[in-house]
Amino acid sequence: MWLSYFLRWWRQELAELIPDWISVAFFGGNSAKRLHFSEKSKEITHDSAHVTAPLSLLNDGAPITPRTKKHYVVDVVLPDNLALARRIDAPRQARGKLKSLAALDLRRNTPFTEQNSVWSLGRIKSEGQAVSAVQYVAKPAELKALRRRLEEVGLVTRKLLVEDEDAADVALQDFTDSLNPNTKKWRWVNASLVCIFIAVGLFTFLKPAFEAKARYTELQQDLTSLRAETVALRQRVDEMKSQRDEEARFRAFLRLRPRLVESVRNVTVALSDDAWVSSMTYTPETITLSGETSEAAVDIVLELSQNRNFGDPRLSGATTLTRDGREKFEISASPGPNQ
């Protein structure tokens, strides 16, 4: 209900705002001059926008009015005696159905019917909790006769109008489509052109946004790919760094670790002539010496502790005396500098 009312109001307001030449150019039809009747006129006169005709044209059998040199399309403003004005009141809630109420009231309270009358509503006005509008009613036979008399003098009727209370035009009949049979086609063509123009304008306006969105999607994909590649490269760098550290530690180990030959030489140099080694167990961390000495085994430990090629020398086993009085020992030490 409210939607239909709003659409009717919007069309009415738009029609009043749009100049007539724009309506003719874009919606089809013919341009028209505004026709008024005057008692002072004896013949038809016109200017750029108006036509004035004798009041006698409203009656049959009136004196013959001279015919115009060429045809004019006119919007006829009907005098008050050709249109009955009735006030229609209704509650505010029935605003969207005011036209139906006006038709029902016309059938019930007047001798007019849908077949023998032409009517139209003026502007709807709100008054508190009520709405009202003026209903203009005319007889089709009288309007048809008026159109015929106007055509005889060279005036072709486009619209039959009534001036409302606030000087707004109310159309009782509109013959625009009958005057120009191609009106609907022009409307469709113009509507299509407007739609195409709007679509092209929107496309031109939104094209950078679409391109930016597509580019953004591509950049997002590239960013995701670069992030994955960065993570993979980071892992690869960490692996290479770990491998490099391992290699560095291994090289340092190879460079710094005591060698077996060097350890044997150092043992040989460090021990006195009174001691001899029967067995030697070697690992990179520990050297274990087993043998005999004519001195005390503790003296050998003291000698090894004063040698920088051995670290932490100690007795790792019990010392015993052999039959010939020599002392049997087992000494452990770390190959490398004494800490």
Topology (elements, then pairings):
Blueprint: H1 2-17, H2 20-27, E1 33-38, E2 45-46, E3 50-54, E4 72-77, E5 84-91, H3 98-109, E6 118-121, E7 125-127, E8 130-138, H4 140-152, E9 155-163, E10 169-174, H5 176-179, H6 183-256, H7 260-270, E11 275-282, E12 287-293, H8 297-305, E13 310-315, E14 320-321, E15 327-335
Shape: rod-shaped
Strand order of the largest sheet: 2-3-1-4-9-10
Structural class: alpha+beta
Distance between the termini: 103 Å
Overview of this protein structure:
This protein is an alpha+beta fold. The chain has 3 domains: 2-181, Nucleotidyltransferase, domain 5 (2-Layer Sandwich), CATH 3.30.420; 202-256; 260-335, Gyrase A, domain 2 (2-Layer Sandwich). Helix content is 43%, strand content 27%. The protein contains 8 helices and 15 strands. Strands 2-3-1-4-9-10 form a 6-stranded mixed beta sheet. Strands 11, 12, 13, 14 and 15 form a 5-stranded antiparallel beta sheet that branches. Strands 5, 6, 7 and 8 form a 4-stranded antiparallel beta sheet that branches. Strand 14 and strand 15 form a beta hairpin. The longest helix is centred in the middle third of the chain and has 74 residues, at 183-256. The protein is rod-shaped, with a radius of gyration of 59 Å. It starts with a helix and ends with a strand.
